[in-house]
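pinging the channel bc i need a second pair of eyes. not urgent but kinda urgent?? the chain im working w is below, pasted from the shared doc
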Amino acid sequence: MAAAEPKPPAGTAAARRLARGCWSAFWDYETPKVIVVKNRRLGIVYRAVQLLILLYFVWYVFVVQKSYQDSETGPESSVITKVKGITSSEHKVWDVEEYVKPPEGGSVFSIITRIEVTPFQTLGTCAESMRINNATCDSDEDCVAGQLDMLGNGLRTGRCVPYYHGSSKTCEVSGWCPVEDGASVSQFLGKMAPNFTILIKNSIHYPKFQFSKGNIESRKDGYLKHCTFHEVSDLYCPIFKLGYIVEQAGENFTQLAHAGGVIGVIINWDCDLDLSASKCNPKYSFRRLDPKHVPASSGYNFRFAKYYKINGSTTRTLIKAYGIRFDVIVHGQAGKFSLIPTIINLATALTSIGVGSFLCDWILLTFMNKNKVYSHKKFDKMVDAPRRGAGPGLGASEPSQQDCALTDARGLAQL
């Protein structure tokens, strides 16, 4: 009698069955189970959520945000400015060369509207300003010779001398004399300043789309010589009156000219390049940039001096200038149709519609799941039992059809 062939180990058979199952699962197609719930209220909630998601993507994402476009922010920009006009103070007539600083005509410039002049300053000794800390004194013992106050006007000599006016005394300093507080004269230049005209020439370029445009209309009839800016009729005449800019910024011109301030001229270029280039137009807005309600940091002023010779000695006129500083700020965004962002946002929209199913499932499972009817239909709970007649060495093996049973076969009529 031939010897019986040895049986393979139980572990080897289980491994083979597992491998066959995995290989079969690789080629199998799985589809989610669909359950129709006959509930009108839940159906209304489901369709309402889908409608809201659809409206959000159609109206906000695609129409408002134009997410189907490739975009570029922050255009390359150049700004050239030019101021024209004359004005007068109590003592002289002022032209552009004197009241515009700096004269180069860049994106940041200042128009002087008030000055405090300290004339004929020479190097010598004089009383220190009373505004300086510890400058007042009663005798020479209160003044330390050689002391240099970084906020003062010179090197202290150690003497206590009478102030320029009144009975007070301050420590004597060696420097440019008289100091600013002692002999300054105020002059107001803002009488005719509201009629000054400011030309703001701006050109922008979006390198991604190779698109360039400027804010001046190309005409050869001397258009710029007689036009001023108007938002509707003269959009491409960027010549603004100073009074108009201050008014649009919501400021009082007299107060602003007296204490000074900073005005921002914002030019916005938002361009839809799917349309013609004529639809890409600049939009101007104006606002005050310095915090006028904070006394310590509001206003704007600076100092400069004019030097000359009198009888061989160096003399200067110190000028503390108050004025309106202008910061021309250019920004914008350009967009053009692109297939990639369109596909990405369409896929996102279609995926987001599934939120309605998730929400309704949560409502069913949480609030409407009477006697666990929906959960039993939604989730098939299967019991895996050993095959009948299997040897003791096989343990738990593949379940037969008879071993796989739904734990509850009730319908959804109760919902």
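so The first strand starts at residue 69 and ends at 73. and Residues 389-415 have pLDDT under 50 and may be disordered. — does that match what u expected or am i reading it wrong
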